[in-house]
Specification:
About 40% of the residues lie in helices and about 15% in strands. By secondary structure, the protein is an alpha/beta fold. The chain has two domains: about 210 residues, P-loop containing nucleotide triphosphate hydrolases (Rossmann fold, 3-Layer(aba) Sandwich); about 110 residues, Helicase, Ruva Protein, domain 3 (Orthogonal Bundle), CATH 1.10.8. The strands form four sheets. It has a five-stranded parallel sheet. A two-stranded antiparallel sheet has the order 3-4. The N terminus is likely disordered.
């Protein structure tokens, strides 16, 4: 794979003892992460990816075994970013009306009133989304796409920004309803949360012995919306778009790109949503790192999180231990990244 230019904004560390300039997106993101890390130990990659999703306005799917602070991370982020927060524990007996709301008859008034559901929040945590039946999942995915709910013929818009962060447990099959591929494709990112290392786990245990101060609010909903608008100012070179499209196309034409041995393992490659989300996510990542232009490395770093849930593997892949990440890693090694002249790019 062609070497990409160094990222000038990644290594510098701001002084977080002072109040950051909220007009500076990088200082703002560092302040957000600083507050979250007062509660969450480690998981730096996960936190950065969640911020990428938040700034891009995309929905996020977190997958990991129980006890990895997925729910706590999302709740803490909601506290730091302000706005309204709702949590739904998905269960097999959940009904669509439990999410979106319903019309209730009031005998005292002799009229129907609309009772709005918990989806009407800026941050919606869908905990263990794979435990609810398909009709409930469909109701949630519809509001994710449309940002509105129709009850009794009346359309109700959800508050903006509206972001769904869903969690799922990959180790249990009993009593679960896996999301169909066409529906999971609506999530911008699928983040796989791993175990902490020994030193991080020791910090987690030490923190559990004392009660810490709650994180302070760094932004409100309007501030987050303003930060999202700044992503639109990040420059994307046409060669970056071609690179993102090339990565996605390679998942559909593996033999053409020199990975014929993987062809039989992939039933369907990534959809065009993969190309779109790669570019939008790369713009948000560049902004978080203090740049106003996207590098090929931004696209490459996000490729596993954007593409892993968009690949439909064959039964042969399951038998031979081939995972979506295996395919994405191979594609990243085959599709050449463009060389950019940084001197000609817009500066931060």
């Amino acid at each position: 794979m062609t070497q990409t230019p160094a990222d000038p904004g990644r290594d510098a560390q701001p002084d977080l003892r002072t109040v950051p300039d909220m007009g500076d997106p990088r200082a703002t993101s560092e302040a957000i992460l600083f507050e979250v890390r007062r509660v969450i130990v480690g998981q730096d990659a996960m936190l950065e990816r969640i911020l990428v999703g938040l700034l891009s306005g995309g929905h996020i799917l977190l997958e990991g075994v129980p006890g990895l602070a997925k729910t706590l991370t999302i709740k803490t982020l909601a506290d730091v970013l302000g706005g309204s927060f709702k949590r739904i524990q998905f269960t097999p007996d959940l009904m669509p009306s439990d999410l979106v709301g319903t019309r209730i008859y009031r005998p005292t008034d002799g009229a129907f009133e609309t009772e709005l559901g918990p989806v009407f929040a800026n941050f919606l945590l869908a905990d263990e989304i794979n435990r609810a039946p398909a009709k409930v999942q469909s109701a949630l995915l519809e509001v994710m796409q449309e940002h509105q709910v129709t009850i009794g013929g009346v359309t109700h818009r959800v508050p903006e920004p509206f972001i769904v962060l869903a969690t799922e447990n990959p180790i249990e099959a009993e009593g679960t309803y896996p999301l169909p591929e066409a529906q999971v494709d609506r999530f911008m990112l699928k983040i796989v949360v791993g175990y902490p290392d020994a030193s991080e786990e020791a910090q987690i245990v030490a923190r559990s012995l004392r009660s810490g101060l709650p994180p302070r609010e760094v932004l409100d909903a309007d501030g987050l919306a303003a930060l999202q608008r700044k992503v639109d100012d990040v420059y994307v070179d046409p060669r970056i778009i071609s690179y993102a499209v090339g990565l996605v196309e390679a998942t559909r034409r593996l033999a053409y790109w020199g990975a014929a041995d993987l062809e039989s393992y992939v039933a369907y490659g990534a959809s065009p949503r993969g190309s779109i989300n790669l570019v939008h996510g790369a713009r948000a990542l560049a902004l978080l790192r203090g740049r106003r232009y996207v590098l090929p490395s931004d696209v490459a770093e996000l490729a596993p999180d954007v593409l892993r849930h968009r690949l439909v593997l064959s039964y042969a892949a399951l038998t031979d231990g081939i995972t979506p990440d295996t395919v994405v890693a191979r594609v990243l090694g085959l599709v050449p990244a463009p060389q950019l002249d940084l001197a000609a790019e817009p500066t931060a």
